[in-house]
Amino acid sequence: MQADLIIADEPTADLDAETAAVVTAALRDLAAEGRTVIAASHDPALIAAADREVAL
Questions:
Q1: Contact predicate 11/25, CB 8 Å
Q2: What pLDDT is attached to residue 47?
Q3: How high is the mean pLDDT of the chain?
Q4: Which residue in 2, 19, 37, 51 could disulfide with 15, CB within 3.0 to 4.6 Å?
Q5: Where would I find the H helices in the chain?
Q6: Do the beta carbons of residue 38 and residue 6 sit within 8 Å?
Q7: What is the pTM (predicted TM-score) of this model?
Q8: What's phi and psi for 9, nearest 5 deg?
Q9: DSSP character for 51?
């Protein structure tokens, strides 16, 4: 079973830059496959990789 919606709360927090880049790429890949990815983050690199940013 594959999820159509992925919700991630600070998925790159407390990761080194290399591992954070792997996680970011994985989330981008999931979105490219047609899944909806929602991530809450303070990580500028993850935010920059997003298709859309909503600031609260």
A1: no
A2: 97
A3: 96
A4: 19
A5: 17-32, 44-49
A6: yes
A7: 0.90
A8: -100, 110
A9: S
